[in-house]
Amino acid sequence: MMQTARVAIVGGGLSGLYAAYLLQQRGFRDYVLLEARAVLGGRILSVPAPLPGSVLDGRAEADNRFDLGPSWFWPGYQRQLDRLVDELGLTRFEQFEDGDMMVERSPQASPARMRGYASVPPSMRLMGGMAALTNALHHRLDPARIFTGYSVRALRATAAQVELESVDASGRVSTWHAAHVLLALPPRLAEARIAFLPALPEALSRQWRDTPTWMAPHAKYVAIYDTPFWREQGLSGEARSACGPLGEIHDASIPGGSAALFGFFGVPATARRGVPEAQLRGACRAQMARLFGPKAATPITEFIQDWAWEAHTATTADPDSAGRHVEAPPPMAASGPWCGRLTGIASEWSLQFPGYVAGAVEAASLASQRLTFVVGQGDREAGDAVGGLRSNLTPMGLDDGTRDR
């Protein structure tokens, strides 16, 4: 199968969906979005957990979701993302932090209770989880332009265009032609999984390869309960531990929905790999009980998401990575056959918030502004820009009044 589009977006996480959304807002629909997974969202993953013994209406059920990927954003300084949340009509709420926190300093000492502290500016979450953001964008896009289960494995720069070779779950190969490609997947993943023909400049390839993918070495555990019983004890649900398996724990409850705690694993990815999930869950439940009492040992349900072994997130270099936020690499080639034809837009390419949810919005926004669509001779039909459209990369100042400050 061979298809053609003016712009091809590789990756259906937040940055890819937002780029498509911005293009459509400007009346441009000659794009295609290719996502390797069977579902959209990328590293944003929110799972449902209905209230036990209750019948939730559709809205409440949609809101009662828990994040196994990113959970928080900070409107106080991530203003562009906050404006998007408003634009999409989503509901935000503040992370619960009232009360004391628990601290485990060693296996030989009992957990200590100490005064908690609040984040400044406040950490915020979304009703429905972060997936409410990607779902809202998805629902505003032309479904005929979105293809899931298509893994792009090669990009070829020809004299006239870029050829994208993808393979679906059945092994069928498809070829797409585009004037410009937006890479909405992490730099390291793109460099490792996609063959660039001709090769990217060596310095650029090395910079992409050396950029850690945020969340790739991490894993999260979520435990759902009947009630937030820790709050009755004057606890915030927050904890720090040097004993593990969870190093950092927070209240994950939904206002009007289920009560929950979640934690980030402190055990390195390479050590986690050889441990059966049932054993990991048991260790997490035991730790919750040490910190918050016996009720914490019996959650209604629980989830583990280990991103280090998720094929469309991590490479072989990521399990040993610290997974820290680092300076963004260049998103494009400065010269050569790829110059002006390929732009990185995933969160790691953000100048202000590399690796964060807000970074995906910023990187996609900057790239979409660089793509200037010039309407030539031809008609517009049903709001679509058709005939004579061409795209080119244009320089832009970084302080253009649209970035977060």
Alpha-beta classification? alpha/beta
- The residue fraction in helices comes out at 10-25%
Q: What's the name of the CATH homologous superfamily of the largest domain?
A: FAD/NAD(P)-binding domain
CATH class of the largest domain: Alpha Beta
Brief write-up:
This protein is of the alpha/beta class and 405 residues long. Helices cover 22% and strands 28% of the residues.
Describe what this molecule looks like in 3D.
With 405 residues, the chain is α/β, with parallel strands linked by helices. It folds into 2 domains: 190 residues, FAD/NAD(P)-binding domain, CATH 3.50.50.60; 152 residues, Polyamine Oxidase, Chain A, domain 2 (Alpha-Beta Complex). Helices cover 22% and strands 28% of the residues. The protein has 10 helices and 23 strands. A hairpin with a 7-residue loop joins strand 6 and strand 7. Helix 1 runs parallel beside helix 10. The relative contact order is 0.18.
Q: Which descriptors apply to this entry?
A:
405 residues, alpha/beta, FAD/NAD(P)-binding domain, Polyamine Oxidase, Chain A, domain 2, 2 domains, eight-stranded mixed sheet, 23 strands, 22% helix, 28% strand, globular, disordered C terminus
